Amino acid sequence: MFHGKTMTPTAYIRHTLTTAPGRIFGLVCVMYFITYVDRVNISTLAPLMARDLHLSNVQLGLALSAFGYPYALLQIAGGSLADSLGPRRTLVISGLIWGVATILTGLVGGLLSLIAIRVLLGIGEGATFPAATRAVAAWVPSTRRGYAQGMMHSSSRLANALTPPLTVMIALWLGWRGAFMALGCVSLGWTLAWAFMFRDRPASHPGVTAAELAELPVIDTPRTGAAKPSIPWRALIRAMMPATLIYFCYNWTLWLYITWLPSFFVQAYGLNLKHTAIFSFGVFTAGVVGDTCGGLFTDYLYRRHGNLPQARRQVIIASMIGSMLCLLPALFVHNLTAIGIALSAAFFFLELTVGPIWAIPMDMAPQYAGTSSGIMNTGSAIAGILSPFAFGLIIDLSHSYSLPFYGPVVLLIVGAALAFHYLPSRPDAAPGSSTPDAPNLGTPNPGTPNPGAPLSGHKLGNAHGH
């Protein structure tokens, strides 16, 4: 499915439609798209909901943040569930819960019921990205993981871009309550497709060919009735902590975009929902490009230099510094066009982070990719709790839409510094590589036979069997 050279969009679509790994990967990308539609549709409809439910900015921020509490708590648990139970069953359960939660959002009558439904949505989506990362670890060649993660997350940014106009269009037809119900039904449809099409083990998929299997890594996958693998928690947490802190810094800014961007344009610049959707579409489209480019850049650096940790590290540092510099105009400039351009450029650079940082859990130990990505994504979930609420609180206290942008500027600097000091720059400098039970983020050259081979016991060597 994924070959050594970068595929053109036409070739990518052809592979997605004609190969079993491609169709599975396409289904995962659709999931990323839908989950983000169901996360951010509320931000587009927030002005209407706040009016009808009589919510202040603080109350709205509290409701938006409610998603993050269960989402944070279930990251690691959901990831370990995907490693032990398998991503197929894990995502079926998750899809049923988040689809029902989206439908129920259309029935809320006030702040408390809205918070309760947002909590249910967080429960449903808590395991989605760790489980999807575990699925992709088995279905994507090891040398194309950055590209794969970039494409997956670009699907979520495409959802960010399309959700405002799509949601407004549906709301004009069905009302904001009907919009939530319709989108929830789409989520349930994806869940049904996943249950029928996906298999935890590529070899057990009826449509996969021997040639396709030869490209895929060999990873221990739970079998029905088999003993569940023991997870080396201490080693995984120690190895993933730098990436978790960096991902928190990234997500503080991301959650501001996801939850407050439409309200920012409405309240700070007086735009109506139609023009807000247009500006939001432009900003999030820049993120789609950034996600794709970040994955391409990191895999290109790896193929060129053979140093996987450095390929991840360099792109992450450059993306955070670039995003910080582009956000600076938001502190001082009040021209709508200039702000739109600055926010778009900042989001492009911000999203370059995603491909390399989400490839790290799969690089480190693919059979524990669910657990390790769950550890890392906990940083996102905590930011998702704090960032939307802090943004709304600062606005209500200061009556300024510029002041809340100081937080992202500072945290992007912190994230770049953490990446520079704590992410390894050499394969032999992975976190804890001097200790016998620590994971190793390094990777040998891409020609290694059987990449992603199973690792024995609680010792995590590098992800490719050396």
From TrEMBL:
PROSITE patterns: MFS (PS50850)
Record-linked InterPro entries: MFS (IPR011701), MFS_dom (IPR020846), MFS_Na/Anion_cotransporter (IPR050382), MFS_trans_sf (IPR036259)
Descriptive protein name: MFS transporter
GO cellular-component term (any): membrane
Keywords: Membrane, Transmembrane, Transmembrane helix
Location of the region described as Disordered in the Swiss-Prot/TrEMBL record: 430-466
Transmembrane portions of the chain: 20-37, 58-77, 97-121, 180-198, 235-258, 278-302, 314-332, 338-360, 381-399, 405-423
Pfam families per the UniProt record, alphabetical: MFS_1
The species this protein was found in: Gluconacetobacter dulcium
Protein's UniProt keywords contain Transmembrane helix: yes
